[in-house]
Design brief:
This protein is an all-alpha fold and 543 residues long. Among the domains are: 143 residues, no CATH class; 106 residues, Alpha Horseshoe (Serine Threonine Protein Phosphatase 5, Tetratricopeptide repeat). It is built from 24 helices and no strands. Helix 13 packs antiparallel against helix 14, helix 21 runs antiparallel to helix 22 and helix 23 packs antiparallel against helix 24. The protein is globular and about 85 Å long. The two termini are 39 Å apart. The relative contact order is 0.10. Belongs to the YPP1 family. It holds the Pfam family TPR_8. Involved in endocytosis.
């Protein structure tokens, strides 16, 4: 026992030293070795889970903390860690390849697939629960943590509210959606009573109030959040959107201008581009989108240049979704610089060294970023062409905006060039079909546009922009019954967005349902008064 305790103390000291070098994968490997001699030693398991989180191995950390919870079922910290992992890393969990309701404007793809996940986890006996089941599991852990303390721990209430809000955003039934938002708001207000100086709780309260179109109360909460944490970029973003909902565009632009100067963030820049479209026209918006492209290049070029997997969970061994043993810190490098750490498992993209140029610098075709020996080309999986690597999510989002702005300027050739530049990333993902549909629509090729929109919805039935564009097209060609169907589908995804309500009123009017059309149109007008320039769903935050 004494030898075991001495070994554990040495390991703890080693962890402190290596954490300063950010060599978390070495810490994780050390604790994994220690588990062989630490049967049900809780602290070893718990520290192992923490090191896995730090090294980007979220799913393995999730499994380890579940084992910790088995050892100590009433440990509040373990319950909160499990809930936090699920909410922050749910998209990284293996075998999560399904569609689910969400916002279309947030640019977050609804077909989620972590790199290298399929080959390994298809061989596992344990099946990963579905997406909504994971959120329910997070709610259960938060509820357990809440019940363990009396009065409840403020962070337990905060995470419980975040989980409920997260579930509400994926719920299409209006009554259930509203009930979840109201329940989350109650928990957040109770959390603020226990800890009035928690800026994150004030942020989430404002965020949930904004989903219910309670703009004035949301503004009060977000102003309190900014008083407590003036440099919170998420709060600055939400404050800007609330100002646009109040139709205070110059004030919103001044706010987002300062925010983008302090935080060169892609989401902030795309919101800035939307406001600039209203104030100054699409030319200025295109300049901002090119600035976002420059930021994407600066952020991800080192990853692509060094053939590093994207951030987390992108290289696996037989032990799960764990990264290569090579250190990402130059001061603790365990392997030679020549070694490649990009996995050769099915579905992994190998990227050529670097991106020398981007669109605004003489953009090189994206096909040239993929090597000829790419296993995706040699042995593609049936689903690989329908999903996008996480590193390219924000890039697709930027190009979606560019395509729309070029079309509004009647520069169809430029928008088509944008689509061609990125078509090699994932030629059959729903975003590509959506952008092709926009171009066909602008050229007057309505049959091709409808075909592309239908293909996008076949891959992802919850893509809100596609539903809106297809509804407009169906009204244009006179198919009012089908237009009404798609308008209702869009309403079930974003009930507080005025666009589907307005299109629904147009289709009803064309069918002669004048009284219902007036009521629906009045709803659209009411919602438009509090509608932000960009959906509130575009802000994704846990803690």
């Amino acid at each position: 026992m004494k030898l075991h305790q001495a070994a554990y103390n040495i390991l703890a000291l080693l962890s402190i030293f290596l954490s300063r070098k950010q060599a978390f994968h070495i810490i994780a490997d050390s604790y994994e070795q220690a588990l062989r001699f630490s049967f049900e030693h809780f602290q070893t398991w718990f520290n192992y889970g923490l090191s896995l989180i730090s090294s980007g191995q979220s799913f393995r950390a999730y499994l380890i903390f579940k084992e910790c919870l088995r050892m100590q079922p009433k440990n509040l910290q373990v319950c909160l860690q499990l809930a936090k992992i699920i909410l922050e890393y749910i998209y990284d969990f293996p075998s999560l390849f399904e569609t689910f309701p969400s916002s279309g404007e947030d640019g977050q793809p609804l077909l989620k697939q972590t790199l290298n996940q399929q080959q390994y986890y298809l061989n596992q006996h344990e099946q990963r629960p579905r997406f909504i089941d994971l959120i329910d599991e997070a709610i259960d852990y938060c509820q357990q943590a809440k019940d363990l303390d009396n009065p409840p721990f403020a962070r337990s209430l905060l995470l419980l509210a975040i989980a409920k809000s997260f579930k509400a955003r994926q719920t299409s039934i209006h009554h259930d959606r509203q009930a979840l938002f109201h329940s989350a708001i109650i928990d957040l207000r109770e959390s603020i009573e226990l800890d009035p100086y928690d800026s994150i709780a004030h942020f989430h309260l404002a965020h949930n109030l904004s989903f219910l179109n309670q703009t004035q109360e949301a503004l009060k909460s977000i102003e309190t959040c900014l008083l407590l944490s003036p440099d919170d970029k998420y709060a600055l973003h939400l404050y800007t959107l609330l100002l646009t909902a109040q139709k205070q565009m110059p004030e919103a632009y001044a706010q987002i201008y300062r925010a983008t100067n302090d935080y060169p963030d892609i989401n902030l820049l795309l919101t800035k581009a939307g406001i600039e479209e209203e104030l100054y026209g699409c030319e200025q918006s295109i300049i901002t989108c090119k600035e976002a492209l420059r930021i994407w290049k600066n952020e991800y070029q080192p990853i692509l240049t060094n053939n590093l997997p994207y951030l987390r969970d992108t290289s696996h061994s037989s032990g799960g979704n764990r990264p290569s043993s090579r250190s990402q810190n130059p001061s603790v490098n365990l392997e030679t610089d020549g070694e490649q750490i990009l996995s050769s498992q099915q579905g992994t993209l190998k990227v050529e060294d670097g991106i020398k140029n981007l669109f605004l610098f003489g953009f090189r075709p994206f096909a040239s970023l993929i090597n000829d020996d790419n296993p995706l080309r040699n042995n593609p999986s049936p689903t690989q062409f329908f999903s996008v690597q996480p590193i390219y999510f924000s890039l697709l989002q930027i190009f979606e905006h560019l395509v729309r702005y070029y079309i509004k300027l009647d520069k169809i050739d430029e928008s088509e060039r944008c689509v061609k530049e990125i078509s090699s990333l994932s030629p059959l993902c729903h975003q590509m079909f959506y952008m092709r549909g926009l171009i066909n629509d602008a050229r007057g090729q309505l049959k091709l546009a409808k075909l592309n929109y239908n293909d996008a919805l076949a891959i992802n039935p919850y893509h809100f922009p596609t539903l809106i564009q297809l509804t407009k097209l169906l009204i244009q060609i006179g198919n009012y019954s089908l237009a009404e169907k798609y308008a209702r589908d869009a309403i079930s995804i974003q009930p507080s967005n005025y666009q589907p309500w307005y299109l629904l009123s147009l289709s009803m009017e064309a069918r002669g349902e004048y009284e219902q059309s007036v009521d629906v149109g009045a709803t659209a007008v009411h919602l438009e008064e509090d509608s932000p320039i960009v959906s509130y769903h575009s802000i994704i935050r846990v803690l």
